[in-house]
Each structure stands twice: as structure tokens, then as C-alpha cells.
Amino acid sequence: MGALLLRCALLALAAGLVAARGGGGGGAGAAGRLSPNYYRHSCPRVERIVADVVAAKQRANPSTAAGTLRLFFHDCFVGGCDASVLVSPLSADRSPERAAEINLSLPGDSFDVVARAKVALEVACPGTVSCADILALAARDLVGILGGPRFPVALGRRDARRSDARDVEGNLPRTNMSARAMAVLFARKGFTPRELVALAGAHTVGFSHCGEFAHRLYSFRSADGYDPSLNPAFARALQSSCANYRSDPTISIFNDIMTPGKFDEVYFKNLPRGLGLLASDAALWEYPATRVFVQRYADNRTAFFEDFAAAMQKLGAVGVKTGRQGVVRRHCDVL
Ligand code: HEM
């Protein structure tokens, strides 16, 4: 069984699953102020318009989905879901969230899909639909396209009037955090360890640059020189795939090496087998309070999908601005 899995992992690597790509941040509980019917009169086709733009973009560039899901997370955890992460450094007089180091790897396609939907909506219903709502809808739609759960998105978020790179620090998880530290960070935002694990299941899609996990591969303080919690064959395959990551920082590896393009529960099956890519993924298996949910989702895709859908709706309500607390920006990348 173990040998078979190893072979699968290596086959996956050998089959070209290693991708190379260029590099590209309140608490929950405000959902009551949002409503699925918010644009019923002002822009009744909003969901259809976003869905069409998103589907076309994903067809043209299949890495859009994962990038947009991550973009949504980084928006909501830094000052709430208010599209502040979308502001371009070129348009702002101070360094916006997008310029923070952790956001530099957010892929251009994820910003582009929101910009395209915004253009379509400005034609259909000018000045009406916020960029924050578009991002929430796009993330939901893209999860569905990849085979994940579908769920309703409450609407009515307003866009931020400010975006500051300095707000990012301390609000987004880092790969070097322990599961306990991640649980504390998520608790600050109103999320339980169970919701943390469900949301981390987003790593069933997309990829990570070698620089994010290279410390696990080279000069690690262990007999073999790599992180012993990694499956040995996987570690050696990663060592070889990432060998040139310093000269080519775009080299990336799929987060879920088994079924990288599918939104499913396999990410959780990978963790007990040492096939978690990031140290933060592996940590969820080491910590009892999170391990129990890793095991539950590994065994039960339905449980994962239900919890992920619920946690995403909660994520979409973090620190939202309504009414005069925000604006509807005409261009998502300009304040
Ligand atoms: C729990 C702590 C988390 C940590 C430490 C973490 C860290 C990371 C890192 C370092 C990457 C690789 C970025 C790159 O190299 O381009 C990544 C990718 C990704 N993350 Fe997370 N993340 C976490 C939670 C989440 C959550 C809650 C979501 C969404 C709900 C998410 C969605 C994603 C996605 C979809 C990707 C792939 C992006 C792509 O392919 O462009 N992550 N994450």
C-alpha cells in the first residue's frame, strides 16, 4: 500500500505535475447584514454575469481558480472582505496590501478575473456591484468548477477606502507557524480549529513555490538532511524538482500531489502519509486538536465539503463593511 502510494507520488511528479510559473491580506459574524438577494432589483443578473466571466477565464487559464481562492482568503483576513487586497501599487500613494511580501505570489490571473467581471458588471449595472462581492462570488464559482461544493454567497459588501501593506503583518498564517499558533490566529478571526482545518483543505488545489518549503528539503537537521515527517521518496523527488529554485524562483509544486486539479479530500489523505507539501500542512496532522479533523475529512469527503462550504460562508462575512462604511469602487485596483 505504502509503496504504491509512493509510486503514485513519484509518477505524479514525473508526469509533469511540477509547474513553473511567474510570481505574481475583524472577526466573522456580520453575515446578518448581507443578503443573497442584495442585488435583486439593482443588478438581478449579477451571479450569472460573474459565473460566465469566471468560467471563461478558468478555461483559458486553469490556474485562476486556486489563485482566486487564496486571494479571497488574503482579502478577508486582513481588515475584512473589502477588496483592499486588489488595490494596485501603481495606483496608490502608499504601499497597499498587495505589495506586502506574502501577497507578491498572488497570481495576476486572480486579479484579472475580478477585473473582467467588474467591467462586465459596470456595463450591465454601473456603479452597483462591489469588488468585494465579485471576489466572493468568483471564489465560490471557481471552487465549484474544480469539483468542490457549491454554496450560497450573501452579498452587500462594500469596498475599502484604504489599503496599507502594514496591515498585513500578523493577520495571515505563515508556513513556519505551529498548528497551535495557526489555531490562535484563526480564533482571533472567529474560527475554530475545525474551521481552520476545513479551510486549509483549500490546499487540495493550486501550488506552492519551492522557496516556501525548501527548508524542509535541504540542510534540515536530521540524519537524511530533509524533514523526517516527509515521506522519504516524496522528499527526494522534491529535492530534485526544486534543486534550482534559487536561480529559478518560479519553480512550483502542486499542493496536492495526487489530484492537483481536483477539489477533493485527497489533501487530507496525503497528510498522514508525509505527502503534505508545506510545513504548515504537515503540522495539522501533528497537533491533536487539528489531527482529529484531518482524519475525519480524509475519511469522508461529504463531511469536508459541508464544513468547507460553511467555513467559506463565514470567511466571506469577516469584517465586512456595509452602507457608509465603504464604497463601490469603479475600478477594483484603484481606491
Ligand atoms: C492555514 C494556514 C495557511 C498557510 C500557512 C498557507 C500558506 C500558503 C502558501 C505559503 C502558499 C503557496 C504560495 C505560493 O508559493 O505561491 C499557499 C497556497 C495556497 N493557499 Fe494557503 N495557506 C493557509 C491557509 C489557506 C486558506 C485558509 C486558504 C483558502 C481558504 C488557502 C488557499 C490557498 C490556495 C488555493 C493556494 C494555491 C494558490 C495558487 O495556486 O496560486 N490557504 N498557501
In terms of quaternary structure, the protein is single chain
Report the strand count: 3
What is the name of the CATH architecture of the largest domain? Orthogonal Bundle
Report the sheet with the most strands, covering strand number, pairing sense and barrel closure.
3 strands, antiparallel
**What is the name of the CATH topology of the largest domain?**
Peroxidase, domain 1
As for the number of domains, it is 2
Q: What fraction of the residues are assigned to beta strands by DSSP? A: under 5%
Which structural class fits the helix and strand makeup?
A: mainly alpha
Describe the structure.
The protein is mainly α. It has two domains: 25-173 and 320-325, Peroxidase, domain 1 (Orthogonal Bundle); 179-311, Peroxidase, domain 2 (Orthogonal Bundle), CATH 1.10.420. The protein has twelve helices and three strands. Strands 1-3-2 form a three-stranded antiparallel β-sheet. α1 packs parallel to α8 (232-241), α2 (46-60) packs across α5 and α11 (288-299) packs across α12. It is globular. The N and C termini lie far apart (54 Å). Residues 63, 66-67, 69-70, 73, 105, 107, 173-175, 182, 199-200, 202-203, 205-209, 212, 255, 278, 280 line the site of protoporphyrin IX containing FE. Protoporphyrin IX containing FE (HEM) is lined by residues 63, 66-67, 69-70, 73, 105, 107, 173-175, 182, 199-200, 202-203, 205-209, 212, 255, 278, 280.
